């Protein structure tokens, strides 16, 4: 019964998306433990083999199992997405809330910095970071994390301004609630749903940006089984007929991004941050 | 007290609970270049005795809500002084001010947006205790339940969230929160104007009742002169940030001396134009009477701007 | 507010990705309208796709092989490589150890090997009408030396201080005499290089003349005179060049009237255009792509022998690699044949020694590849006393999939003998600086000398003293024999020195060698004649 209600609330699109995402998560978590092949072990006797029972996704130019690499790549994409979105959102929230609460020059300085960050596409930002930190997954992660910050900061600031203008904040001030308590008990809880929506909708683009960096050779380095880098590795073999090396990570990427976007849209609809306060005119 | 009192204040035998002296609040609105400064509260002085209900009357935009917030330093006044029980409120450091807030509470106009929708009623009512005392959760809940009973709600209401309640009930919850710290002064900012007429009387009676039982002092912001007549001991009529008339509620509202007060009374529902419905301050018909001149004590304790 | 979305970010990301993809595609798509994919008489120009773009067209400034893509077609040289039959029908290749007259009709070498006297044909002129005589050749060679850039190293066979060439005299308009400081068995090849190209003194003087020790920026993108079989009709740096037959050329006109050369950096584009017939000849295609074209009726894949090899230079400054046992251990760790068949796609020949199989002087008996013996490798590592696991960083040029794949294979193979390799991709722009400063533990080098000569090659790949030695290897006994071999004109005696070099080198296991790398050329079925030379020469192509 509860299941059926949940299904109705979320709708079939989100259901399919959840299944797709679930499959990738399962592949990322369970496969490396269960699958006999390893993502980096080479086998010179079995290079560029097409999909078969032993290698369902085939092997690449040095005889590595593409399925094992696919799973390891899923792990990397999911994890980096999670890290970048979490850290980026938290940092954005701190910046946005600080700016919204303190106003004045602090607000000005912080938001101008955010504007500058926002002026660069995620990829360019990440490329700039690689100049400083060297190419690699670490700088790619830092870069995309940075790209998440201003978006969240802006929303968090606007929301903080809206919330602090609410009478309930004045009421809390009037009872003499310490400022930190006020933020912790009244501002942050109202921000949270919005931030979750922001974070989930940023997830897809973050994952994509990391893959794009890998594709350009600025992200994951050889022989890290990162999806973007795997697609690059598979480009030429694909032209030569070995379609499986690039196709599977490409499909994985597509599934992951589409599914997270569909889910984040649903989460947005279900967690409308106005929901809680929108009832103010319905005098139940 | 040897210094002559500012116009609007009166000599008292016992020290008043609240002494307001030449309080002024200037807002610079809009962009700093184009916006003209607005004197929302302009050179206002008055005293409120312990146990008194002091009404601030005026149409919307006259500055009465701003004045009410300045009294509690929710808005920082531009100049003047507010003394609460002999303590200069505006001079206090932040920490001391926070402590003082336990003794001066406010009840807002809108009970829908002044309660956090994410908290239970018990948490809302008990929240002031967390800010000022180190009571246990159990004690807090007990106190909250007591207060809910006091304001006429079933203590079981405490487990629910504000959206489960009607406007009148929410205002009771808000009142319970304002009273839980056992304050001396409660500022009531249009306490019933957001409510249906049918529940207004209940709340007004509740306010009178609690004042009596807890020996509270109220400063009430009102635009409904009928309610003011019924509730207040003394009233001040405000126009464009200034007082035009101060005196006992019965005197001022039954024999107004300032033309603006008369205009206000004429606009009262049932006494002329019928546009003053709940939720909105009555508009004054015709050319608005002048607020210039100086406050003079025409009879003892009766000040009129002339 | 409800519509605050991160969509723009996503859109931007997608757009960027598309943009990059588009850039990769369009950047290397030749702007060709007429393509010669019909058999026999082609209608449009002959289209050549070649890997890499020149950074300069000035033959005196040319450094890497990319800079020499056009030089031999645009400029005359005194001598040229002799021609050998190629590995496939309709192909010929160059002979790195035998030279024939080109601009010079003939030459004589004095018995002591110091004086070269060239006879030039009479009555040749530049398009301007000025004589193309011994004085013009002297001007050209002097220019290369005066500029002191890469060309000077080639022309003097790496002997720059003091230079190998002691004097150049235009004795008569048809007689040029070059005197060397010491005998050099490689000097004729030096004269076959772009560095010895004959340029038009008038054109040079009209466009900035010669500045000592400096490049002339004008000639980076312009022809320095029409002396070769082709003239440069159009040149788009980094993208393409159009060559047309030179009406003033002293020899027979070239076999094709017009050749369009596209400089391509993306190997996928190369494969596509080779397969669909957009390109008539593709030079430098990847081994994987070549393998996939082997069965394709579109074209013929021809691996030409070159002196290139795939190796890993071990930095002796990196402590573990200073230990000969460690180096030796690594040489036994690789299943060379299996690796060649998989990551090498089967093109090449395993060997172990200082000289690649195609290098004159190579002795197969002394250059056998080490057997795959992981137990021995482990034993040697243990004997060496090095701390295990041995960790080092293997540098590879960024963006080269073939080498990335190779490095991955190396990594997984060495893991078997408790050697942990981390792969570091270095931007191409930093490669030279990293090699120069020795800021690496080990580095993959896929390549070889621009001049096919052991003496020239080992000057930068082995010699103890040479400042040009980029790998920091020093095997004194090999070094002595290398110096002797360079000056020895007698072939048998010289081979004796080379053998000694090989023996001493192999005994020291100075670096890891894998296999020789042939130059991969894909020829469209419509082509009837293709000649391969170390620097492309389209003279006989049709």
Automatic annotation (TrEMBL), chain B:
SUPFAM superfamilies cross-referenced by the UniProt entry: P-loop containing nucleoside triphosphate hydrolases (SSF52540)
PROSITE patterns from the UniProt entry: ABC_TRANSPORTER_1, ABC_TRANSPORTER_2
GO MF, one annotated term: ATP hydrolysis activity
GO biological process, one term: peptide transport
InterPro entries: AAA+_ATPase, ABC_transp_ATP-bind, ABC_transporter-like_ATP-bd, ABC_transporter-like_CS, Oligopep_ABC_C, P-loop_NTPase, PhnK
UniProt keyword Transport present: yes
Keywords: ATP-binding, Nucleotide-binding, Transport
UniProt domain ABC transporter: residue ranges: 18-265
SMART domains: AAA (SM00382)
Gene3D superfamilies, alphabetized: P-loop containing nucleotide triphosphate hydrolases
Record-stated family: Belongs to the ABC transporter superfamily.
PANTHER family named in the record: D,D-DIPEPTIDE TRANSPORT ATP-BINDING PROTEIN DDPF-RELATED, TRANSPORT ATP-BINDING PROTEIN
Protein's name according to its UniProt entry: ABC transporter ATP-binding protein
Organism: Jiangella aurantiaca
Classification lineage: Bacteria, Bacillati, Actinomycetota, Actinomycetes, Jiangellales
UniProtKB/TrEMBL annotation, chain C:
Main localization of the protein described in the UniProt heading: other
Residues of the signal peptide: 1-23
InterPro entries found in the cross-reference section: Peptide/Ni-bd, SBP_5, SBP_5_dom
Solute-binding protein family domain boundaries: 99-464
One Pfam family of this chain: SBP_bac_5
Keyword Signal: yes
Keywords, comma-separated and alphabetical: Signal, Transport
Domain of life: Bacteria
Family that this chain belongs to: Belongs to the bacterial solute-binding protein 5 family.
Name of this protein: ABC transporter substrate-binding protein
Organism: Jiangella aurantiaca
